[in-house]
Structures are given as C-alpha cells and as structure tokens.
Amino acid sequence: MTQLAVAVSGGVDSLCALLRLREQGHDVLALHGLFLPDAASSGLRPAPEGPRLLTAAEALATPLPPASRQAVEGLQTACGQLGIPLHVADMRAVFDREVVTPFVRAYARGRTPNPCALCNRAIKFGALLDAALSLGADRIATGHYARLLDGPAGPVLAAADDLAKDQSYFLSLVPLERLRRAVFPLARQDKAASIAQVKDAGLAVPVPQESQEICFIPAGEDAYRAFLERRWQAEGLSLPGSGPVLLEEADSDGRPVLRPLARHEGLWRYTEGQRRGLGIAHSEPLYVLRKQGEDNTLVVGGRARLGMRGCLTGPANLLCPPEQWPDTLLARLRHRQRKEIIRRRFRNLFHIIKKFLFHTLVFQRFDLPVPFERIIPDQALRITEPYRDAGKLCRTIIPEITHIGKVRLQIERTSGQVQILTDT
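RE: above sequence
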C-alpha cells in the first residue's frame, strides 16, 4: 500500500486531514516541520544546518520557541491516540534561507513580498516533501483548502468548495511535478466540518488559534520594525529612513505631474494601494501609488490615479499548456481581489521556442476592458479559467509597476516575461 505523509502544523486543518486519511484506510505518517528558530522573537538567524529528521523526543530536547514546543507536544499526544508515527523535520535553516531572508531583503528594497506563497513552493512542497519521500512516503497531504483536477498535462490546481477558506492562490507557485505528489483531503468540506470532525474524534488541537499574520514575525508594528531592523543589521543592510512624499496629479493636458507633499518615515511602512494610516491631510483621500526605492520616494494620489498601466512579471509557473487554454480567462493579482476577465489572442509559435524558455509563457496576448486595480511588486498574477470547476493555468511574480491607463497582458518574446502594457 502507498504510504502518505501528512504535514501537520498543530492546527485543526492539518489534524483533520490526518484523521480523514486514516479513517479512509490509508497508511499514513505524520510529519511536522520546525520553521521558527529559538531566537525568532529577536530576529536572529538560526544555525546554518540543513534539514534534519528527528523523533518528537529528539525535537523536544532541542531549544524551541514556545509555539513550536506546544505544537510538538500536542501532536505527540494526538498521534499517540491515533496510533500514527510522528516525525519532526528541522527546517529552520532552509526556511530562513528560502523564505525569511528573501522577505527581509525585499522589504529593504521597499517591496511587499508574499512569504506564504514562497513557503508553499520552497518548503512545504519543496524541502518538507523531500523529507517525506526520504521516509518512504510516496505523496504528501496537507490541510490546505484547495482541489486538484485532472488536466491534460497532469493535476491542475483549483479552488476548494469552501471559497471563504480557499487557499489555491497561495499554492499556485508550486511546480506541476510537485503537485503530482500533493493530496488535499479538505477540498470538499468547509472549516466548520473540519472542526467538528476533530472534536468528535476526541482530539485536542495543539495550536487552536488560527494563524493570520506572518508566522515568523511577532505581532505589533514595534515588533515588526524591531525584527526587520535586527535582520537588516545582520545582513549588513541600512535601514531605509525618512524620505519625500510626492503627490501625483494630472496637469491641464491630462499628463501626470508630481509635487512635494510631505515626508514619510520609511518605505517599508507602506503598501501600494494603501489608504488608511498615511497621516497626510489632503482635500481628498490619498492612496499609495508606488514606492520608489532608488530615491526613497513615496508617491501618493487620489483614487482616480489607482488604475494600473503596466507591470512586468518573472517567469510563469505553468500548470496547463498555453495552447490548451480557452479564449476567455480570468486574472487575479491578490488573494481576495475580484477576478478580471481577459481575452487572449494566440499565436501558433509557442512550440518553436518552448524548449528554450522551459516553464515560461510565450506568444500570448490578453486584452482587458478596464484597468487593473493598483498592484504590489513581489505579489503574484494568477490566470485561471472562467468556470466554477476550472483550474489555475499559471502564476507568476510581479517585480515592477508603471502608471495608469487601459492595459493588455502580453508575453514578452525573448525573456519570457508576462507583461501588462498600455493598450494604444
């Protein structure tokens, strides 16, 4: 019988996934990842060690932050009740290298990265999946609310039935070859059902509170700043300080002009599209339009300036061959953002250079009837089919933004970048 590893965090969702698979008769093992260093609250880096597999007793004998100790102790009890072996993978060094360090460096450049998407790709379906395979498991199951459909090239990621809890957006950077080994037992149920099933089984949830913030940074703005400052100092990076705030308006000919308005206290405090908490008095509500890290400038403007003229993205994670996409698609730039309809025009040249670009979109064009909302560098663009049971087609990271206007989405020929440009 094929053995399944179940990634258990200590929360109710992963515990329910473990319970459901066991009740369905699967041969399962539980695998818990240690991600947070003992010095997490101070922002210090863990020792540069690779992933290590431990027993629960071995993990508890090492220095752990309180939350990790609570999770391991609780999972040890729950797995004992179920008669399921528990393994612990020490991922602290690789988590720091692949998730925390890129996050810290991006913030120093005035970016707003999405660490959860990077974690799912590099850690949960990267290093943690590798640990599961080394234990003899064939696949890894998680407590994510997402579905996998059968696609022409393999599994295709799709939204869970519980749309309020759907996490497929955060999973769409996971490569196709990794999704082939993924199992999502909670795809067809809602959160309330998960809570009830765990309660009915008599299992105590080791970490009952639901994670809402970035797991490796303590709550509160002061703690956030302290974490970043200590990491920047350890990285040899200087703290981005105060700089000018410029107001973008239209001149008499409708062209954008900038004028000095105020001072900011560090670009890292702001996010593109932000309205609340700017602390700037003006005749109309102001929004953050962009952060210019090269000259430490914050550009703000009224709501009319929020429309997006263009952006460049990195190489796409293809989950379905572009030549098999329908003509009408949906695009989403943030987790809770309304999906925008886009239509494509396909050029039949994809196969000619596909081998040179690997998993990169090429020779597609997408027209949008309205401008996108303001988007955030280091966030992700996801393209999906427009049907309720549709799968995600690709996802890619957005590194740059320009200004406003009607837009089209186009795939750049030579670099393979997805590009949203003015539709002239």
